[in-house]
Amino acid sequence: MTDQQKEFKKARDNLGRFSAAIRTQFSFHKIKTFYDLLKAVGYDNDSIKRKYFPFEYDKVLTYQDVQDYLSDRHIELTTEQWLKENPPQTNHDIRSTNGLHDQSILLEKDKKEEIQEEKEFKQSPNEKAFFFWFQKKSITQLLEGILGK
Fold first, then answer.
1. Is residue 56 part of a domain?
2. pTM of the model
3. H-type helices in the chain, by residue range?
4. CA nearest 57: which of 67, 68, 45?
5. Which domain holds residue 35?
6. Which residues contact 60 (CB under 8 A, 6 or more apart)?
7. Hey, how many other C-beta atoms are within 10 angstroms of the C-beta on 19?
8. Going residue by residue through the chain (149 aa), what tens digit of pLDDT does each one get?
9. Would residue 148 count as lying in a domain?
């Protein structure tokens, strides 16, 4: 294990112990409201009253509310760790086109469409079946694959 992996494991273990402690406090009725939960997490009175409305922090919690809160903390931690291991790529090649499309790309697309149009489905004169466009396309591709064209 690398040092970073050890650090991540330690953070996950700490979150697990923290979650168990919060669940225990809830089961012993030490956490009854969202205010009690925030105090147990480590917020002080001033920051709670600044960030939340009274009807929010006075809300009586259910066990599911506590589970949701702890699940959110777990998701935050794993997301943060994943982003540290897999940082977003920022070296994209950005071309400025001054709001206009690159004409060479459009011409290449037109040529590809012309080539695709040339591959026309040729139906047998003795056959009476009707095929939809996607069926014709797949039949043509299958025949080309078999015949090696």
1. yes
2. 0.56
3. 3-27, 34-41, 45-51, 54-57, 63-85, 103-118, 133-147
4. 45
5. 3-85
6. 32, 33
7. 17
8. 889 899 999 999 999 999 999 999 999 999 999 999 999 989 999 999 999 999 998 999 999 999 999 999 999 999 999 999 888 877 665 555 555 555 566 556 555 555 555 566 667 777 777 778 788 888 888 888 888 76
9. no
